[in-house]
Amino acid sequence: SAASLAGQSKDSAVEARLQYLRGKAATCGPDGRGSAEAEQLLAVAVKLDPSLDGAWNAIGECYWQRGDLEAARGCFLGALAHRRSAASLCHLSMLLRLIARRSAPDEARAGVLESLSLAREAVRLEASQGAWFSLGNAQLAVYNTCTAGSEELHRAGKAFTQACSPSLPPPKAL
């Protein structure tokens, strides 16, 4: 019956949330984000409820901690496929900058520019301290990788100032 399917769906969502919270708690243990237990619990959460973007992000952090950057990227993209959140955008932006540092110059430039685009989107979605720091770091990466122009340094400074003074109105141009 429809009522029984709705009940199963609700139970599955509750179980997914429970596994997610258990997985997040396991990342606070001695192994941190490198915990195999955390990774397993978070994987169950994602399987039970693929729209749980927090679980996608948390398991992405586990993969990142282990050094599996492509798996981490896949998780952050999985989160973004379900919901465009500032947290997921910031995670992916940071990861792309890390990958860019290990890439050939042309690939590095493309990765850094994509990172900047994601950081800007994160600030537009949620002008939080973390999003502003991500944008500042992305601007610095553009300066270091692509342009070395003073305008990029100025933009980075504006983003860091905003991150440190969230009561200020947002700058005119991102």
Topology, pairings included?
Elements: H1 2-26, H2 36-48, H3 53-66, H4 69-82, H5 86-101, H6 105-125, H7 129-147, H8 150-164
Helix pairs in contact: 1-2, 2-3, 3-4, 3-5, 4-5, 5-6, 5-7, 6-7, 7-8
**SSE class:** mainly alpha
The helical percent reads: over 70%
User: What integer is the average pLDDT?
Assistant: 88
Distance between the termini: 52 Å
Count of alpha and pi helical runs:
8
Parts with pLDDT < 50 across at least 5 consecutive residues: none
The number of E-state strands comes to 0
Largest sheet: none
- The helix/strand order is HHHHHHHH
Assembly state (oligomeric)? single chain
Q: Could you describe the 3D structure shown?
A:
79% of the residues lie in helices and 0% in strands. With 174 residues, the chain is mainly alpha-helical. It starts with a helix and ends in a 10-residue tail after the last helix.
